[in-house]
Amino acid sequence: MFYREAGDYKTSYAADSQTFPIAFDRFRYYAVLLIGVGIIPFILNDYWANAILIPFLIYAIAAIGLNILTGYCGQVSLGTGGFMAVGAFTSYKLMTAFPWMDMVTITLLSGAMTAVVGLAFGLPSLRIKGFYLAVATLAAQFFLVWLFNKVPWFYNYSASGQINAPERFLFGQALTGPNADSWVKYLFCFAFVFVLAWVARNLTRGAMGRQWMAIRDMDIAAEIIGVNPLKAKLTAFAVSSFYVGIAGALLFTVYLGAAEVGEAYGIQKSFLVLFMIIIGGLGSLFGSFAGAAFMVLLPVALKVLLVDTMGWNTALATHFQFVIVGGLIMVFLIAEPHGLARLWALAKEKLRLWPFPH
Amino acid sequence: MLDAKSKSFTTADGRTIGPVVMEMRNITLRFGGVVAIKDISFDIREGEIRAIIGPNGAGKSSMLNVISGFYNPQEGEVIYRGAKRPPMRPYQVARQGIARTFQNIALFDGMSVLDNIMTGRLNHMKASIFDQAFWWGRAQREEVENRRKAEEVIDFLQIQNIRKTPVGRLPYGLKKRVELARALVAEPSILLLDEPMAGMNVEEKEDMSRFILDVNDEFGTTIVLIEHDMGVVMDLSDRVVVMDYGRKIGDGTPDEVRRNQEVIDAYLGVAHD
């Protein structure tokens, strides 16, 4: 009914290539932003922030990052957890070494550091692809976690091997540490998600994104029409790692507050983020959000349904969650390889004509 | 008419063929012990339609791959615009103004027609990654400028109605046309077409032939063409190179080639006694 293209004419190429060409989409996007900034911070309680919204925002950044690499550029990576750890440890070292540095700079530098590391581990992608590259990135995952465990300098020689985020302030509000309010953390993550998603959209709709997708769809043809595969793959690795590093840094500083590398940034993290983009939709920014939301909400929803409503015991519900996630991944890979994003797009296509399909 | 030394000449239908733009000198290409191309020399003149023909396995596509830099020949040299071309990667060759289409369609299936064609403009887009990230200044300007060029080609090849369709959904004939558009939009000085009419019906072939002639006519693009349909080759091309088993067995105008005994033998077979 409201979803109409009719009469929405574009008179310039700039207008035609904008992110939300359909007016209804555009207004919905503004509405989401308005609710996210203007309403949620005021009604937010700790449970909602810590169980759902903050992890959703942080994982959305990680999912966008991995989607740039895997979904757009076609390079499979299982090193996400390791790269997140690079972001976390960079932010920890910066926070402890330079106590005067503000958190925005620290987070961005953590991303930059991860981009450099990602670039180094991306070099094998020039020679190997597919499963073999996945194994190479798996090596990155295990190597990085081992490194952060083994070299005490990274965790400032603390006895437990844990890293703890010291208290830092942003505009006079505690952002990290035990006294931080959840609305501050939420808004901080929201700002990062907003800017990073916008940048990702710009990159993927322009020349850079076309190079990535060309490499993904047919690398030989891409090279023959003028894509430098070295540059395209390495920029994808760098940009992707930048995002993943920021997500890792935020996860540690803002969300967890304290982390042990093998536990917080282990191989499970890599799989979690990979599942997010598979279920959400490869090669789609909306899919990154949908997948992150799905994977964050699923345990919460199952807990409410199975434990609180049906009275199962918690352990059984947790195990049942594995079964459901595994089953869903199979279903998605077989029935809808493009994930929730495609289902969403199909629904929108139907809505354009609804209720008069003929 | 076809004196190698002459600067330029005019064809029967009034097109001007310029001086030599690319010359292959004694090209030999081996894959291990297999000799795919054996000591072949020929030249390509500015503005002409140059066909490469030959039976299956003659080495035509390998020749095209040598021109587009995908293979580097073991012997011989490629002279481009008067200078010897050093061994280079295909994307560097593309930047010199050589574009191509493929025998088996090599489009980017996950992208729309428009994005495929815009990818062909990559060599004309120089905005830095930071400009692109913030959709700022140069990135934004280039996007619009190149879109204009892409739309010209879309108009030219009459594919306006499928602009936003994902390429994977298109029928074969249209895919071939989109691939031509992607090569054409780069504004190449030499356009390499590897069997542009393979698997097409007569009507589609006629369309494609007309597009090829129009491209040559309107943009003055030099075209190198591999094709099996002899009728098409003889009608379209100005000069023809004939290959067989990696050797060159004929070179000249369609009429000369048609009368060449070796060519006739290669195509029709010879009785061995």
Give a quick summary of the entry.
Chain B: GO terms for molecular function: ATP binding; ATP hydrolysis activity. The complex is a heterodimer of chains A (358) and B (273). Chain A is mostly helical.
Largest sheet of chain A: 2 strands, antiparallel
Low-pLDDT runs of chain A: none
Residue-averaged pLDDT of chain B = 86
Shape category of chain A: globular
**Radius of gyration of chain A over alpha carbons?**
21 Å
H-E string of chain B: EEEEEHEEHEHHHHEHEHEEHH
GO molecular function (chain B): ATP binding; ATP hydrolysis activity
Domain ABC transporter (chain B): 22-270
Keywords (chain B): ATP-binding, Nucleotide-binding, Transport
Organism (chain B): Roseicyclus mahoneyensis
How is this fold's topology laid out?
The complex is a heterodimer of chains A (358) and B (273).
Chain A: H1 13-16, H2 23-43, H3 46-72, H4 80-97, H5 103-122, H6 131-150, E1 163-164, E2 169-170, E3 173-174, H7 182-205, H8 207-217, H9 219-224, H10 229-256, E4 258-259, H11 261-264, H12 267-280, H13 285-309, H14 314-335, H15 339-353
Antiparallel strand pairs in A: 1-4, 2-3
Helix pairs in contact in A: 2-7, 3-7, 3-8, 3-10, 3-12, 3-13, 4-5, 4-6, 4-10, 5-10, 7-8, 8-10, 12-13, 13-14, 13-15
Chain B: E1 9-10, E2 16-17, E3 20-31, E4 34-45, E5 49-53, H1 60-67, E6 75-80, E7 83-84, H2 90-95, E8 98-100, H3 113-119, H4 129-133, H5 137-156, H6 172-184, E9 190-194, H7 202-219, E10 222-226, H8 230-236, E11 239-244, E12 247-252, H9 254-259, H10 261-268
Parallel strand pairs in B: 5-10, 5-11, 8-9, 9-10
Antiparallel strand pairs in B: 1-2, 3-4, 3-6, 6-7, 11-12
Helix pairs in contact in B: 3-6
